[in-house]
Amino acid sequence: MATPISSFLGFLLFSTLIFLCSLKKLEGRETIEGNQLYHSHTVKVISLLPSTICSPSTKDTDKKTSLTVVHKHGPCSQIKQDKAKASTLNEILQEDQSRVNSIHSRMSKKLGFDDLRESEASTIPAKSGSTVGSGNYVVTVGLGTPKKDLTLIFDTGSDITWTQCKPCAKSCYQQKEAIFDPSQSSTYTNISCSSTSCSQLSSATGNIPGCTSSSTCVYGIQYGDSSFSVGFFGKEKLTLTSNDVFNNFLFGCGQNNQGLFGGSAGLIGLGRDPLSLVQQTAAKYGRVFSYCLPLTSSSTGSLTFGKSARPSSAIKFTPFSKVTEGTSFYGLDTVGISVAGRKLSIAASVFSNSGTIIDSGTVITRLPPTAYSALKTAFRQAMKNYPLTTPLSLLDTCYDLTQYETVTVPKIGFSFNGGVYVDLDASRTLFATKIEQICLAFAANSDDDSVAIFGNVQQRGLEVVYDLAGGKIGFGPPSCS
User: Fold this and answer.
1) Which end of the chain is more exposed for a tag (fewer CB within 10 A), N or C?
2) Residue 96 catalytic?
């Protein structure tokens, strides 16, 4: 029979255990809540919306050959269109889907040379556009003697560089700057049909070159939204900066051009073909270029040729994927995705079967449906305290944040081959133009076999380095935000 003292001690011991257990549970809850805070971003809702005022980057790039990059229709752009002519959000996303469809078609056929794409260090500021046109970024370069400044889309998914040229023998779309007139340049020369350069057009454009009665080589290229450019293939002096001038640069002088190029004068091809700008300037820049896309449409970024001046330890490299061999595209090997610090349960075969490319011209990242479903479910769970609203075109996870001053958004992370991890904050996770409809900036492909695309929303603000000589691509911390 227990004594009163021993009964009291037993009760005290039991009570103490209950108390300690409750402390442990509280500690565990605090740890979970702390981890949630660590793996999320709390931002002002208004910071997610586009601004009408240009706020140029104040960061010193410390790069010799750097061009300024802007969003084509943002307030920093010199070629922005009137509101009446500007594309609507639905049009932008439809054009984006047209580009994606074209990429999938090219990848499935392993042709890879007929669509739009996006060194001593050379940097050009990058600006962002919004037609496919859509979601493309632009830089300004000089062409001819005397030099004429032209604002061109830069595209890692294209190879040939072209601009509209007088006399516009058949058709030219409306551009903001004066159309380039080769007859007024002392350094312009047409390429003959019999030259090796002319025969290279087949791989750079996906089309067999034509020939005029005077034996001038004719190029033709068509893009995913049915935009196209046809004209004379020529060579000219290209000026990137005052210290970076290239004679005999091969480019297309467009005489029949139609499409949604948003007032730009043409396009710079940054693909892997011998006719791309990257390959034509290899002797100086070593087939290395990088960019930092503007964090918002109202800020500026940079496009740099040559090795970065930043410490190499700041850039984490992953090898080019073999999935894009024989194409213009740059491939990545995705190995995982995490949401709020937790790796999603997605079989490795989902990513290896589809493959992944990185593309400067695709706006919204595309994923295999199996991967997107897991991402969407985890994201919605983390955002369960915010009200869902109607989808926006292909974006099916949208929120109405009119009642909120701040929003806490879970971090999304991508893991690539070689131990490279890219962390995406709220600005690289959400697509927003109005407070009533702020959406997750990811979408599903039609099937698990179509190639995944790491789009430009997810790249914004990061330094992305393309090292063709080293066969690798690198990601670094924000260099223009």
Assistant:
1) N
2) no
pLDDT at 303 over 90: yes
458 contact partners, CB below 8 Å, separation of at least 6 = 365, 414, 422, 424, 428, 429, 441
Q: How many CB atoms lie within 10 A of CB 108?
A: 11
Query: Two tokens at 467?
Result: 């090292």
Query: Which one is catalytic: 96, 359, 425, 448?
Result: 359
Q: Report the amino acid identity of residue 41.
A: H
Q: State the pLDDT at residue 284.
A: 96
Peptide bond into 146 cis (omega under 30): yes
How many Cβ atoms from other residues are within 10 Å of residue 297's Cβ? 24
Catalytic pick among 114, 155, 448, 467: 155
| Residue 72 burial by Cβ neighbours in a 10 Å radius (0-12, 13-18, 19+) | buried
pLDDT digits (tens, 9 = 90+) for 107-119: 876 533 333 233 2
Q: Report the alpha-carbon angle 309-310-315, nearest 5.
A: 130
Cα 472 to Cα 144, 267, 352, 458: the distances in Å are 33, 24, 18, 19
> Given the structure tokens 């410490």, which residue do they identify?
311
Active site residue 333: no
Q: What average pLDDT score do residues 184-206 get?
A: 96
pTM confidence score: 0.86
